């Protein structure tokens, strides 16, 4: 019997839905409920997309294509489970991971990693001791992710454009000019009081007995880039 069910990837967002060697399937429920017996088993058939149309269902368990035969047979069967595991009220995980078993070591049925990106198509097959009883439709093609080759990865950082270099140079020049202006302003604020203090300590002093002395020159401390101030008393604080 053909069951009107199409296997598919989980519709919601999830981590690792499709990787380079695995993919997740939505766990089917109730699809074989009226057709399955307690002794029946449900298998998952995995085939390359171009080989799914020519795949022939096995007539017994001895004809089940193993995982190791995928390169030559172009298909294999895995994830054997009792039909009751897919019942309407059966508890279980919401998804099935195809290719998630990395330690099969010849153990059947193996659910080993998929060897290439595919694409693949899958279907569920209900089998009894005497052969197939029912099956679902084939899924849409499932393409795995491709791993990037190391030769395609550029180890050097991305080159900056000439425009970005010019803008960076202009910004650096403006920053340096601003820093020099700030240093000059701070130096002026610190130097002017010192100059003023020195001027106050060398003001001419007149007495009745000593002739007027020539005005003293500015002290050396005032020759530090400050703006010269006129001779005279310091401003009152």
TrEMBL record:
InterPro entries documented for this protein: Uroplakin-3 (IPR024831)
Keywords from the UniProt entry: Membrane, Transmembrane, Transmembrane helix
The keyword Transmembrane is assigned to this record: yes
GO cellular component: membrane
Keyword Transmembrane helix: yes
Spans traversing the lipid bilayer: 165-190
Listed name of the protein: UPK3B protein
Highest classification ranks of the organism: Eukaryota, Metazoa, Chordata, Craniata, Vertebrata
Gene name in the database record: Upk3b
């Amino acid at each position: 019997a053909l069951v009107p069910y199409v296997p598919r990837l989980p519709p919601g967002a999830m981590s690792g839905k499709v990787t380079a060697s695995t993919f997740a399937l939505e766990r089917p429920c109730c699809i074989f409920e009226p057709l399955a017996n307690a002794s029946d088993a449900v298998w998952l058939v995995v085939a390359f997309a171009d080989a799914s149309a020519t795949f022939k269902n096995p007539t017994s368990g001895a004809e089940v294509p193993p995982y190791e035969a995928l390169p030559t047979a172009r298909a294999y069967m895995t994830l054997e489970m009792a039909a009751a595991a897919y019942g309407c009220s059966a508890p279980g995980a919401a998804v099935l991971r195809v290719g998630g078993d990395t330690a099969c070591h010849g153990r059947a049925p193996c659910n080993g990693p998929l060897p290439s990106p595919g694409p693949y198509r899958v279907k569920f097959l209900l089998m009894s001791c005497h052969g197939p009883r029912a099956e679902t439709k084939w899924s849409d093609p499932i393409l795995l992710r491709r791993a990037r080759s190391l030769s395609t990865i550029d180890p050097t950082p991305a080159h900056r454009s000439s425009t970005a270099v010019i803008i960076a140079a202009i910004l650096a020049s403006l920053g340096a000019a601003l820093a020099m202006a700030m240093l000059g302003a701070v130096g002026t604020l610190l130097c002017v009081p010192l100059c003023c203090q020195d001027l106050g300590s060398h003001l001419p002093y007149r007495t009745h007995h000593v002739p007027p002395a020539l005005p003293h020159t500015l002290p050396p401390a005032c020759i530090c880039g400050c703006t010269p101030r006129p001779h005279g008393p310091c401003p009152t604080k």
